[in-house]
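writing this on my phone so excuse typos. first protein, seq and then structure
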Amino acid sequence: MKERAHRFALKISFIFEGVVQRIKAAFRALRIFHAEHNWHLSKKGNFYNPILEATIFRSQGYWKIARHDEYFGQFETAQVAQAYALRMWMREQNLLQLPGKSPLRQDESRVGGKDMVTEDAYCEDAVDYKIYKREANENLKAEFFYLAQTGKDCYRCRIRTPVYAIILPEGFEAVDEYAIEDLEEEGVVVDEYIPFSAQDYCSLVSYVDYISPSALREIYKHTGERSFCMEYSHTIKASYYRSICYACGAAQGDHFISSKLNTPFCPSHFEDFKKIRFYTIHEKISLRARTYTIDHPFMEDGFLENVA
């Protein structure tokens, strides 16, 4: 009798769980549909979506995305730009249609009565993310990277000086905050071993305060140790890797180099972007950056001409 009751309760729980999942899927589809069809056309011919907080505008023959004071992409049609803006929003809202959660092996180690993620705990058939042992609290990884170089007038002495930036290629990996939340909800301790997921765009990183030693050695072959090093910033009250003026020794802040539009590494005109030199560094890199961009308006075309 007890066994029949147990089976019945188990069956009911499965049915209830299925109903809940269907309701969640329906709400997810409704949110996406509402966001996708909420574009408004302005008198200037631009498109604005209040849900996505994005504006699609035409500039220099291409459609671009303005969102949260940043600019993305270079699209042939407004529809493609709208689709890309929707995908960005879906990624932030954790609404992308991803495969199921990565199941953990049965032989997971136990710490304090809870499951501890290890590298062996990652199943090879799960494609959402990978588990890595984090050495220095890094949040980004790549198999190789680009070192960008251009010139800028020093804010102190006004002499033209080289400045540098790091570009991560499409397919680089970033800490997956959503995966961490999922694992913690399942009772898994996320401490030393962290989930990273691959990104489908290239990225310009800023405010970097950690670079893996082997990658840093390769960078110094192009910059020298005195022209790119850790310097304290009174603006953000922290130290990070900054370009140093060769004439007066003043540290050039990322805010005026790469963190906003119309700076040396985020120029508003393609002709200025073509002046940037890119060096391909065939070395794995792990780094910690406060900010990194989602794509770049000129990145693809610029690389075709300026990569060394």
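second protein below, same order as before
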Amino acid sequence: MRAGVTDDSSVNPKDSIGIATLWMTENCPTYPFMKMNSFSATIGSLIIAAALTSGCATSKNATCSSPAKSHCGLKGDAPAVSLTAPPTQAVQQAMTPAEALASLKSGNARFVAGKPAHRDLTAERAATAAGQYPLAVVLSCIDSRTSSELIFDQGIGDSFNARIAGNVLNDDILGSMEFACKAAGAKLIAVVGHTKCGAVKGACAGVEMGNLTGLLAKIKPAESAVPASDDKGSYTHVDAVAQENVRLVMVQIKERSPILAGLIREGKVGLVGGMYDLESGKVKFLE
């Protein structure tokens, strides 16, 4: 089942509550927060019918984007997704890794266009106080210009976010990812580097300073994998190393976590890498 699109011939009536919640959340921005756990399948179907008659547009004509060949655990196309309320458990369970990626892509498109989703943060806080069902976990840099919640136009409860200089991987972050995916149900891991990264530039320049020395050492393998440059301080070289670093972190996630590797292999969780452009605001997902 794709977000916002149902096929009556293949839907189990028992799933209609989750489908109704997912459909309403994604297709009707005016849909109020409501708990549907106690609603029957019949009521769920009536909610969808009511939405159709009230003018909420379907997303059957939403644009689709094909995941890059190197994206792990992602199969098929997924329509653009825009959540205007925190994901419920039903929404999270019905979401596929490809749809979670589509949600990030559509959020970034809104960010670039300067048209963020209209959110009621007070209502979102109240809706998530008793539990959270994020769709993705994003590993990004600590850089003050790269907040993943902003660049992907995410609200409260939409995603887990881990930030560290150079978006490097360590055991604590890996454990956090395992919690996010295995225990909390997130469907996607996104490793996002960015242009003009100070941590990567420091690694290329051989900077040594206190505890930072050990962190920058984690970026060195990426530098070694990039062709030598006469000007290691140029941002052309730095950006190439930053992109390679994203790729290596993706490999490390699968090599160092049997739990995540298994979820990815089974198609339950997707793994993608991307580069955020500080100037344009766009996130380019890697091929």
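The chain has a mean pLDDT of 80. thats all i got for now
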